[in-house]
Amino acid sequence: MSNSSVIDGDLYSSMCESEEDDVQNSFFEGGESSSSVDDAQYCGDIIGEHVYKPDVPVQLIPFKGLIFKSLKLSTQSRFDNKIIKKKHVICNRGGKQKKKSCDTLRTSGVRRKRNSNSRIIGCQANIIFESLYGTPDYKVFQFDELHNHPLEKRSDLKKSEANVIFRKKKFIVCASTSKIAPTMAHKLRACLRGGYEFVKPKVVDYKNLRRDINRVIGYKDAQMIVNTMNDRRAHYPNYSFEFNCQDNVLDCMFWADEMENAYYAEFGDVISFDATFQTNKYRMVFVPFTAIDHHKKSVIVGAGLLSNESIESYSWLLKAFLKTHGKEPALALNDQDAAIKQDIENVFPNSKHRICMWHIMKKLKNKISDD
After folding, report:
1. How confident is the model at residue 44, as a pLDDT?
2. CA distance 206 to 169
């Protein structure tokens, strides 16, 4: 093992890092190695106390002094044009965790969250390459192949996008629409399944799927929502949908389903609408129209999205509301907004306009002096 030898091609540890398809790994069992590369698979045997060793053909195991004519590593660092003398390849679970303060009793300020999904456990498995001066070759300087954690099965290392079946894809999409990030969605899926070992797709697969969905949607998101609403209007009874575009950009939209139309027919004498809700991504204003039923519960009689709170936008929205329901409300409640007040007088000339009591009581202290 002390004599140096030269071989062409990539190194054994690089195969382990990139999961080469032509090499399958397994644990060392009983001090014997596999006789065939195709028959080698990971198993769960332990050498000593919590020590694991990959079982691979002997001809693929590097040793100190072994020289490689080609060395493919994904990252290289150069500082001030200095010559790189050594390159380190470590286990993806090696290193030390950074200490983070986590005060769960703090009642104010920003509280750090616990990092419960960390894979770093201080594994010492690594290989160090030393460059040969004057040549592009590298020599194995140090090689430690013992791990302090169980190695994954070869079947788990295969590309797992194929495991993301339709049911799981639907879960990722639903989580995304509920503003649940891919990492949290993966953690939620693991909790529902009973552990991470029952979730074949990795976190990166969740992220890649969400990225691919956004890439497919692109700038067609507005057209997709318009097509969806038009499809509902064509197939659902008494479904109403109106939209308006400015320079090929979706500017306003209003919709109401059959139940909302029935609510307005019964409880539409007094309605309230407020434009204080604003979506995060598109910065559009959400305007729900609300009435009170005979149980004194709030019911929705329509909803709209506006790109801005201008007089023109509110005028279009109220006209769409009147076109859908066919009659004006007897009383309209909202906050003290000059644009809304003007539009209500123009679109609902027979309706009375009143300011919401909640807004009045909220501003009462500011309007009345302490004297």
Report:
1. 41
2. 8
Measured distance CA(42)–CA(55) in Å, rounded = 7
DSSP for 303-328, written as a single string: EEEESS--HHHHHHHHHHHHHHHSS-
Residue 107's CB: how many other CB atoms inside 10 A? 6
Strand partners, 292: 298
CA–CA gap between residue 220 and residue 241 (Å, rounded): 19
- Rounded-to-integer distance, Cα 295 and Cα 273, Å: 20
Phi and psi (nearest 5°) for 247?
Answer: 55, 45
How many Å apart are CA 126 and CA 144, to the nearest integer?
A: 5
Contacts of residue 175, defined as CB under 8 A and 6 or more positions apart, other chains included, come to: 182, 184, 185, 188
Residue whose pair of structure tokens reads 């097509």 in the numeric block: 227
Tally: H helices and E strands in the chain: 9, 15
* Band (351; pLDDT cuts 50, 70, 90): confident
What pTM, to 2 d.p., does this model score? 0.51
Q: What is the mean pLDDT of residues 78-84?
A: 61
* Separation between Cα atoms, residue 43 and residue 155, nearest integer Å: 11
pLDDT tens-place string over residues 220-229:
888 889 999 9
Which pLDDT band holds residue 18 (cuts at 50, 70, 90)?
very low
Per the prediction, the chain carries an average pLDDT of 75
DSSP result, 254-284: EEE-HHHHHHHHHHTTEEEE---EE-SSS-P
Pair of tokens at residue 42: 């990971």
The mean-pLDDT minimum among 6-10, 41-45, 149-153, 231-235 falls in 6-10
Distance separating alpha carbons of residues 200 and 152, to the nearest angstrom: 12
